[in-house]
## 1
Amino acid sequence: MDITPVQRDELERTSRKAKKPYMRIKALVLLNIADGLRVTQTAKVFRVSRQTIHEWMNRYEEEGIAGLYVRLGRGRKATVNYEELENYVRQSPRNFGISRTRWTLAALAKSVPSVKGFTPYGVQKALRRIGVHYKRGQAWVHSPDPEYEQKKRLSKKR
């Protein structure tokens, strides 16, 4: 694989400063190939297949650095229906037969069809994706009012 001095600078910069770790690895692989290392040797060192290296080389030759980024749509598709989850979260759990005033992560995992069987942490991650931050409710609140205990006793006497 022959590269120009400009391409070498681009690959070296990417190998040192890319935010995505996989981009640094791909740039290093291509630099090693450009320096004359065989594809088989490079594949062993970086623990990738020869076919993968050839794909990276072809994509780099066709598209430059942009061809090395992971393309959208790759990986496992989400099973969570985010609209459905948000619909549940924005309503009271009592609307769904749960005798609580606030949602818990476990209650969401049991109630929302698209997150059934999720762990509490999995539900929390799904909530973060829709911009909802989970905070556990306190069982009781202590008032900052210094006369709170006195007022509480008075209200119980009535």
Note: Residues 80 and 143 are 39 Å apart (CA to CA).
## 2
Amino acid sequence: MFKDLSLFIIKPNAIKKNVIGEIISMIEKDGLRIVALKSLWMDEEQAKAFYIVHRGKEFYESLCKFMSSGPIVVGIVKGESAVKRLRKIMGETDPKVADKDTIRGRFGDDIQKNAIHGSDSLETAEREIKFFFSENEIIKLLRER
């Protein structure tokens, strides 16, 4: 069910820059279909649960604090090789080295405030999608698209 899906999060710094539409447009221009979209504000505990795979790493606490510092937009994209294609559109994690035609190259501030998060594998995409969307929501969304 999750084979051609990936999750993305437009981060608080990109929301503040008012570039949600530009980011979504870049994703859609690649031919990926956005099948779900939510705007929300995670609290720090939710951010810690979402980024649990990074617990114990130097950047974990500051990442969780940043991701709970303002609203985010969470979405699911669908398309062949969605994870790989989305990661290419996003660009390198560090905006300083990301291609200027990528989301991070255009809108990222630094390695943490890089404008967008995206799943890095099919397994991660499934876990991340289930974190933000109920099974019922996912089934309905996929049936209607």
Note: The beta strands are 5-10, 33-40, 72-78, 116-118.
## 3
Amino acid sequence: MPMRHVFVVPLVAWAVLTLAACSGANVDITKAVQVTDLTTGWYDAGVENGLNKLVPTIGFRLKNAMAIPLRNVQLNAVFRRIGETEEWGASYIRVIQNEGLAAGATTNEIVLRSNLGYTSTDARSQMLRHSEFRDVRVKVFAKQGSAEWTSLGEWDIPRVLIVPSYKPQSSSPKS
């Protein structure tokens, strides 16, 4: 009987640790991921109410820096005009779901755009040089599972225009 108790305790401990690892136990997200391939600028959001619209944008990839798969990661980008403390826009996304990101693997590009931006009748390139244009800074927060939000970094958005990619549609040959 005493032998049985000795065996059951390690077995229970092993089961608890295995279950925690499989469920995506919370980790220090700042050590778990690395931000790579960073790009920032002003995205051409098209025309809104007859006006050209530009929104601050950040794009990057996340690399899993851990030796185990990473699961359930969420990102929140908070945009503020430089010199102001109030939020000027935000963007939220779930980037890594239950299937996880393998150890050492990198996500596809993640793009976060503010829901607010500048509108004008001016050409988009002129908007970036307008005297009333205010520069913006973005702070990106991450969390894994039910952990608290943690800052991954903060970046100024340069006055660079990001134009949506043009993808021509294939057409069938004319006879």
Note: The chain has a mean pLDDT of 84.
